[in-house]
Each structure stands twice: as structure tokens, then as C-alpha cells.
Design a protein that fits this description.
heterodimer, A: two-stranded antiparallel sheet, B: mainly alpha, 15 helices
Amino acid sequence: MKKFAYELFLLGLIGVVFAIAAILDPRFLSKNVQLELSSEIWELGLLTLGMTLVIITAGIDLSVGSAMGLCSVSLGLCMHANLPTWLCALACLVTGLTAGALNGSLVAFMKVHPLLVTLATYGMYRGFAEGLQSATTNAPVDASEGIKSLAAGTFPLVPLLFAALTVWTAILLGRTAAGRGLYAIGHNEEAARFSGIPIAKLKFWIYTYTGLLAGLAAISYSARRSATAEAGMVIELDVISAVVIGGTSIEGGRGRIAGTLLGVLLIHETRQFVDWYWQRSELTLIVIGTLLILAVLGHRFLFAQNPKTR
Amino acid sequence: MKYRREASLLILVAVLSLLATLFDGSFVRDNTLDILINSIPTMIISCGVMLVIITGEIDISVGSLLGLLAAILALLCSTVSPGLGIHPYLAIPIVLTIGTLIGLGTGCLVVYGRVPSIIATLGLLIALDGAQDWLMGGGDIKHFPQQLRNLGTGTKLPINLIFTILVVVATGLLCRKTALGRRIYAVGSNRSAARLAGISEAKIKLFVFALTGLLTAMAATLWVAKLGNVSTSTGAGLELKVVTCVVVGGIAIRGGRGRLLGVVLAVILITMIRTVLNFMDLGSEAVKWQRAIEGVMILVAVTSDHFSQRQQSGGSS
């Protein structure tokens, strides 16, 4: 169990949140409220899967939210043109894939620092999303019936897809050579290169995968609300927070999907409860920011095998 | 060539001015002062963040911090409720102190808590943003005493610009002429060598974070003085602009390298882009693409610059 000590700690924290909720207002724990509040967790969850891989290689992707906005606008354009549902969804995913591939090639093949690449594309993708939207429809596009029934209908497609991708990502990370390669890159890139790990290829694919997930998240968001350049605004902060709270080291080489899932759950439940009970979004920000710092401090001092080394 | 980066930034500034001049002969005469004044907050904060990045850390909380400090100053000074109507000359030192203390706190988290700076400041970015909204309670704050507004507008002399120039010159002197400046570079370029040379990494890092907090407080003061209005979105997104300017200005993101002159030129360049795009009047279509054009230019700057660096160092980057 020692290996999963940090995950147990997170589970305990989630328990604390639930316990506080149970004392203050037990209605929060009822199935209806939880289901009603759960709609936003899937987008956050999807994006964290890719971000976990990226951060394990000591990289970062600040552009996920902006890519999501760009995907949402391209989806909106297709819906506006009354294209068939599958084509709209495909266009959205391809947009995400392209955005991710651009990040990936700059990081992997041109060897630019990921913080710099995604800082630039963070502004660029959002800029293109806003430009494209105001040059064409100039307003959010309501989701077509097809997209609505696909991603926000009675059949829980998005949650199922999230579950499948979670399992797939966890297996990739824990059970394959590629996964071990990602840890090796994050741990010591120089050593990984000498071990013959295809660094550029792996890096390219994880950023591309993150882009694809941004496309999926955009479909889910647009189906719930509308297709707009606003989609995914500041979600990157939540995504990175969830991954880091989940025990993935920003310095690379350490992290697990199980931790990320718990991080997502912790952030989600905290946010929803504070929002729902006190009805004050600013309080949520203070709580989440503090939680992020405390989680890293906690990890550093309670769980690091040798806290003297970095 | 040592000043290659500065030269290329200068050429870009010149090309942009030339382009704008082609559209209107009086562009340079009419807009230079405006561009410089618009660049003030970014310029002041960039001086601090540059030093932080040189030590090998990063600070992405400056936007939220500026917002929070502006809100505090506004609440202290504003002459109408909920403002307290305190005299600005008393309120400004309070804000400067709070800014420095928060910066110092960030430094402590990084140095003693060993929280990676990008995470510590990400947490602060989120939390301080919440604190700003909480303090403001939703509405904008206006109505400031004239003494405060004079710092940003009012009189004939652009006090804020002169003050900014002083900050830049002081930072330049700190980097080039003092032992402290050399130590800041030393910590960033080779930690173990710096330690062996008897440099206290902890003290240097605490200093640069505290200084960034102080400079952010100064920028917040000038911001409130100039605009005379604080909203919940004040300062949002500024951290990314600052980091972009510092990086485009040639400060190595891994620390230890880069010069202030490049950063100053980058701040002017990036502030110029928007003014010039507005000015060239490319039609209403182009206005919508401004942010995208800006993004592409920054991406090109960041990427191309990396290329030239790799060639310089014989491809072994």
C-alpha cells in the first residue's frame, strides 16, 4: 500500500470535503445534486488525461483551453452550415488534432521549451477562435440537435468515452514501453536519449493527443452550452492544478492516472460545493489556489522518500 | 555578435514604425509617447520577472497580484463608499508593503517550501484572483483623490513615465554594476558553482521575488492613477504578457542568460504591435484578427529566436 500512500491521502481529503458537506448541508451528497453538478467534470477530466502525460515528461501545455475555444468555433461554423453531425464532430476533432500537432512539432522537432510554445499558442489559438467567430457568425452558435443528442443526450456518451480513454491512458502509461519512455524523458532526458528512447516521437504524440482531447472536450462543452470562442476559458489552470494535486511532479518523471483522477474529483467536488453552498465563485478560487499549494507542500514533506533532494 | 537579439528587436520596431509612417506621416510624432505610456505596467513588472527568470524560477502570479493590489489601493483611497478615503501618500506605502510581503511569501514557498515556482505562483494566480473579486464585491471602484490621479495623468510632466525610466535604469545598474546583480546571474547559470562561491541561493531568490512584488505594487499604483477605475478583471492576463516580453527579450527560460535592454525593446515592440495594427486601418476585418496576428508574431519570435541560438552554440542546445 505504500506505493499508493499519496492516493490514499487524496482519498482522505475528498472524504473531508464530503464530510464538511454532510455537516453543512447533506443535500449536496444526494444523487440528484451530484448528477446535476457533474456535467462539467468530463471536460476537465478529458483534458487532464493528456496533461498528465505532458507533465510527466516535464513539459506543460498552457494552450489546452484556447485550443478548446478554437475547436468549439470550428464546430459552430460546421453546425451553422448545417453539415451532418458526424462531419461537424470530425471537423472539431481535426481542429484539436492540428492544434496539438503544432504544439507537438514545435516542442519535439524544433526543441523549443514547451512553456514558450504553449504560451504563444495560448494567445494564438484564442485569437484565431475570436477572429473566426467574429468574422463569420459573430455570435455563439446554438448546438444542433444532432450534437446535443450525441454529447448531451440521455445516452452518456461523454462519460463512457472518458472512462474508456482513462483506462487506455492508464494502460499506456503503466504497462507499455511508450509509457516507460515518457517517465524516462521526464526523469532524465539525456539518459533517455542515450537509452534509445524515441524522445521526439513520444513528445509529438502526447501534445497531439492533448489537442485531440481538447477537441472532444469542445464537443461536450458546445453540446451543453453553445459553440463559442469563450469555450475553455481559464480551464488550463484547473487542468494543471488537478494533475499536480494528483501527485504528478511538475519537474517530470513522476505521476499516475489514478492520482490525476482523484485530483480531478477533489477539485471538482471542492469547487462545486463551495459554489453551491456559498454561491460565491471568488471563494472557490481562493480555496482551489490554496489547495494546490498545500497539496504540493504536503507531497513534499509527507510523502517524498528523501525530501532533501529535488 | 553580442547584441544580435537587441539589434533584431530594434529592426522590428523600426520596420513597424516605418510601416505605420507610410500610412500616416505623423505616426511617430503622435504615438511614441502613447506607446511608451501604455507599456508602463508591463515594463515595470518585466524588470522584476526578468530577474526571477534569470535565477531559474518563474513568477506567473503578477497579473492577479497587480489586480489585488489595485483593488486594495482603490478601497483605501476611493472617496466614495466602500472606499475609506485615506490620503494616497499614506495608502501607497501600505500597498507597496503588502506587495513586497506577498512577493516575499512567494519566495518563501519556493525557497523553504520547495514548491516549484511555476506551481506556487499558479496557486497564487488563482487564489489572489479570488481575493481580488472578494474584496471588490463585484462592482467597479472609481473616484480617486486628485493627488493620486496626478501620478498618472494631470500634470504636464509624465511622472509615471519618468518613474518607469528610473526603475529601468536602476534595474540595469543592478544587473550590470553590482555584486548582487552578478550573484543573480550566477545562481541561474550554475547553482552548484554559485553555492561553492559562497552565494546564498535562498537569499538571492527571496530578494528577486520580493522585488517583483514591490515592482508589481508600483505598477498597480500607476495603473490606478492612470485609469482611475479598478474592476474585477484588472490585471487579468498580464502575467502572460510579461513572461512573453521577457522571453522575446532574450532572457533564457532556464535562467542565467539575457539582458535588460532586450526586454525593454520587447515590451515596446509588443505594445506597439496593437497600436500599429489599429493605426494601419486594415479594415474592420483585420481588427477581429488582431489577437491572432499578435499570437502568430509571438510564436514566430519565440521559435526563430530558438533557431538562431542553436546555430550560435553549434547546434548543441
